[in-house]
Amino acid sequence: MPHSVSRIEAKCIEKGLKMTGQRRIIARAISESTDHPDVELLYQRAVALDPNISIATVYRTVKLFEEAGISQRHDFGDGRSRYEEASEEHHDHLIDLKSGKVIEFTSEAIEKLQKEVAKKLGYKLVDHRLELYAVPLADSPHDKEH
To answer: Which of 32, 53, 69, 109 has its CA 20 to 30 A from that of 116?
Structure first.
């Protein structure tokens, strides 16, 4: 039975990467993630679909995807590398230190300010990565989730 092609799988095909069945499953696990999973979580998701996938295969595959610019690795300070699909649209991250939840956001004001700071210091901003580490406010609805 044919399957639909995940976004990451399509990017791999565009870049000429050989797509084995196990790579397809790992690509799908990353594409379908709404969180920022680490290798262990990707392995759990992949092995649920194919019990023959090893954790070593997951490690090799996420490294291959990262090197090809298909996925991005993040270190949010919890000692685990986390992964997401590389995106054309820029976004930043807010990490909830209480729950570990990663929230993606965009802010035109922050983007403008970063360019202004670089210019003021005599530079042209060509890239950046912004990660905010936060805890919920005491009266926040997020605080009541925990």
So the answer is: 69
